[in-house]
């Protein structure tokens, strides 16, 4: 039977993780993106069960206590976590499952799934990163400030990952991502 694979996808907020993953999944529909649980409020257009499972703090804490999360972390004032059941089930079915998660969660996965392939997406510069977050127009000033403070810390940890990809030109970044994922091994 084909073996499943866990792929961790990390990078600072606004670097283009979501954009790259949407394109990757369109071209490779066999890949599965895990849907996380979060206490963050939905942005306009975000759908419960598709973008995230949006839950309150009490429910999130309950999931942590019941060990329902494979990993979890606090990010910019909210909690995020990966539901365990869907990931374990999909990998056992031979699927390639992608976790789009922040640094602390990626470190936890390194302990629990040492075989996971870990990718880090870098911005061309911090200035460009800030422009992207602002252009996206989804965050308050306070949320932007929190994300930028965290960005430097995350970028400093990029070398903990197996592969680093700079998202400057989107198409080139996508090509590099495909090359990293689909190398014969
Ligand atoms: N540890 C962990 N981080 C997550 C999870 N889901 C999302 N994140 C990360 O949480 C951070 C904030 O996500 P989000 O609020 O959607 O903001 P955005 O990255 O600015 O689009 C990002 O770095 C995500 O990769 C999860 O299940 N676990
Ligand atoms: N290579 C790129 N060049 C210019 N803008 C980009 C690029 N990749 C993504 N963006 C834009 O940057 C913003 C943040 O991207 P997004 O995918 O939401 O980031 P993340 O999921 O990492 O927070 C979006 O407005 C997106 O259209």
Automatic annotation (TrEMBL):
ATP binds at residues 11-18. PANTHER family: GUANYLATE KINASE, GUANYLATE KINASE-RELATED. GO terms for molecular function: GMP kinase activity. Residues 4-182 form the Guanylate kinase-like domain. Keywords: ATP-binding, Cytoplasm, Kinase, Nucleotide-binding, Transferase. InterPro entries: GK/Ca_channel_bsu, Guanylate_kin-like_dom, Guanylate_kinase, Guanylate_kinase_CS, P-loop_NTPase. It comes from the Bacteria. It holds the Pfam family Guanylate_kin. CDD domains: GMPK. The keyword Chloroplast does not apply. It catalyses: GMP + ATP = GDP + ADP. The keyword Hydrolase does not apply. This is Guanylate kinase. It is found in: Cytoplasm. Essential for recycling GMP and indirectly, cGMP. The gene is gmk. Belongs to the guanylate kinase family.
């Amino acid at each position: 039977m084909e073996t499943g694979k866990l792929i961790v996808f990390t990078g600072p907020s606004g670097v283009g993780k979501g954009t790259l993953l949407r394109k990757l999944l369109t071209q490779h529909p066999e890949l599965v993106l895990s849907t996380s649980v979060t206490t963050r409020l939905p942005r306009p257009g975000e759908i419960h069960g598709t973008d995230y499972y949006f839950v309150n703090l009490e429910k999130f804490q309950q999931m942590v206590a019941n060990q329902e999360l494979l990993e979890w972390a606090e990010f910019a004032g909210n909690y995020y976590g990966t539901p365990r059941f869907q990931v374990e089930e999909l990998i056992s079915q031979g699927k390639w499952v992608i976790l789009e998660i922040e640094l602390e969660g990626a470190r936890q996965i390194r302990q629990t799934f040492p075989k996971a392939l870990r990718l880090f997406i870098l911005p061309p510069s911090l200035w460009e990163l800030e422009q992207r977050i602002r252009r996206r127009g989804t965050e308050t000033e306070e949320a932007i400030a929190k994300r930028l403070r965290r960005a430097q810390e995350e970028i400093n940890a990029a070398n903990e990952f197996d592969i680093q990809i700079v998202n400057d030109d989107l198409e080139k970044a996508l090509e590099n991502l495909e090359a990293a994922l689909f190398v014969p091994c």
